[in-house]
């Protein structure tokens, strides 16, 4: 992974090239104050003051150039100077006349991260950013590492990111932070976690299903469960997806990637909580052993589920994992899942559909998303749609007919496994960026991670 700590340094007055970040509304006044050589350079670069305009500005000597960026991003945005992070020559930089970089250090770091597992990328020396707020460096590096972890895991092909590899990721986290890991695999799931077993039973022995659990922290502290959907590849099962729908299904473990990254942040910051991380990891494969439409599945909670769609498998494995999490009587449960296409139709890629059955937690999450520039959008756990989950032969179905309110009915299914007295939030996230933006390449992406981290840090930080 990129050494993000090498990209940020305390500003002690060392030599550095300046970066002028100018708002479009202030551009004309800024330009009027500049010497003629700067006005000539901006005219030659056709800089008109529109957002995104940029130019190299000459100094008094040939080697004393600086950079101009016209930017309408708020000063608190992580992405304010991200477009420069991978476009400047290697060297050391500081903001020339726009204060401290602050949150923009995150975008500067992430702009220099590349996923290189399968493709060689031309090497560049680091672009180092100076800051007069050295106390922010460590937190920024942690966030960059967590975001890059999500991106890299999601970008990895399913052949290299199966249930065993998710287990290895949890093991590595545990070794780094002194946590313990327990794994229930294969046929051992059949009695304790029958829905996880059913979904994963068609996969090969090497890609057997499993429930991965990590425990960390002082048992006397409040217990927090973080759950992540780990469908390492989703064919749709016997309700098989078309090729276009299967193309990106390596990302269906994106919820697990978010949960692992958030757990890493919790442990690295040593928050005052007792962490219970749960990753139900499966491959929804097709074979003679695949579970079928019409099968009635047992659950850890004791409910029965009529399987009406084998492509609605994520909620099944999450149901068993949530039931296990509840047994520890947690103060808080957060789950992340690439759960429904309906959420994407409603909200697009950038906004995780957020379902919360605790009003205080809902307010915290939404406010944290705004502060962290990691927005969430709340959808209702509408009791009136609960009847859509009725079954003629079992306690409920996993996927109602008709497709109405698909993200909501999926969340209502999960709610069956979480008692009303437990604060619980479900984030239906995309985990994929379909088009690049500065500091945010096309591919795997962390949505909702910083918002959730902001809440945990505020609640359980020292």
TrEMBL record:
Question: Which Gene3D superfamilies does the record associate with it?
Answer: Leucine Aminopeptidase, subunit E, domain 1 (3.40.220.10), Zn peptidases (3.40.630.10)
Q: Which Pfam families match?
A: Peptidase_M17, Peptidase_M17_N_1
Q: Name one GO molecular function term.
A: aminopeptidase activity
CDD domains, alphabetized: Peptidase_M17 (cd00433)
Similarity comment text for this entry: Belongs to the peptidase M17 family.
Looking up PANTHER family in the UniProt record yields: LEUCINE AMINOPEPTIDASE-RELATED, PEPTIDASE B
* The protein, known as: Leucyl aminopeptidase family protein
Q: What species was this sequence derived from?
A: Sphingomonas corticis
């Amino acid at each position: 992974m990129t050494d993000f700590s090498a990209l940020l340094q305390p500003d002690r007055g060392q030599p550095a090239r300046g970066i002028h970040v100018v708002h479009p509304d202030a551009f004309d006044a800024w330009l009027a104050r500049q010497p003629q050589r700067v006005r000539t350079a901006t005219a030659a670069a056709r800089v008109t003051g529109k957002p995104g305009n940029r130019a190299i500005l000459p100094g008094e000597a040939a080697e004393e150039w600086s950079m101009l960026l016209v930017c309408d991003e708020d000063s608190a945005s992580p992405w304010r100077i991200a477009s420069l992070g991978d476009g400047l020559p290697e060297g050391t930089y500081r903001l020339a006349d726009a204060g401290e970089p602050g949150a923009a250090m995150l975008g500067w770091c992430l702009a220099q991260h590349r996923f290189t597992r399968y493709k060689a990328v031309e090497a560049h020396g680091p672009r180092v950013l100076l800051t007069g707020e050295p106390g922010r460096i460590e937190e920024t590096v942690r966030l960059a590492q967590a975001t890059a972890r999500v991106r890299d895991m999601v970008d990895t092909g399913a052949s290299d990111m199966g249930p065993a590899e998710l287990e290895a990721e949890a093991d590595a986290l545990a070794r780094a932070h002194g946590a313990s890991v327990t794994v229930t695999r294969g046929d051992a799931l059949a009695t304790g976690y029958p829905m996880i077993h059913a979904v994963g039973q068609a996969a090969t022995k090497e890609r057997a299903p499993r429930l991965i659990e990590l425990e960390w922290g002082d048992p006397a502290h409040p217990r927090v469960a973080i759950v992540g959907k780990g469908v390492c590849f989703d064919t749709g099962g016997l309700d098989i997806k078309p090729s276009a729908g299967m193309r990106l299904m390596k990302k269906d473990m994106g919820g697990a990637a978010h949960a692992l990254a958030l757990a890493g942040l919790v442990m690295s910051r040593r928050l005052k909580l007792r962490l219970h991380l749960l990753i139900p990891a499966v491959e929804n494969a097709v074979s003679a052993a695949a579970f079928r439409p019409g099968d009635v599945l047992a659950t850890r909670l004791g409910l029965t589920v009529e399987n009406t769609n084998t492509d609605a498998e994520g909620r099944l494995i999450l149901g068993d994992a949530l039931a296990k999490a509840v047994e520890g009587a947690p103060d808080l449960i957060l789950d992340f899942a690439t759960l429904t296409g309906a959420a994407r139709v409603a909200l697009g890629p950038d906004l995780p559909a957020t379902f919360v059955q605790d009003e205080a937690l809902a307010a915290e999450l939404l406010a944290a998303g705004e502060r962290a520039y990691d927005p969430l959008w709340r959808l209702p756990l509408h009791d009136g749609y609960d009847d859509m989950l009725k079954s003629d032969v079992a306690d409920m179905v996993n996927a109602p007919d008709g497709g109405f309110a698909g993200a909501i009915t999926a969340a209502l299914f999960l709610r069956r496994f979480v008692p009303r007295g437990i604060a619980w939030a479900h984030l239906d996230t995309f985990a994929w960026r379909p088009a690049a933006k500065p500091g945010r390449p096309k591919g795997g992406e962390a949505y909702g991670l910083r918002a959730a981290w902001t809440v945990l840090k505020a609640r359980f930080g020292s």
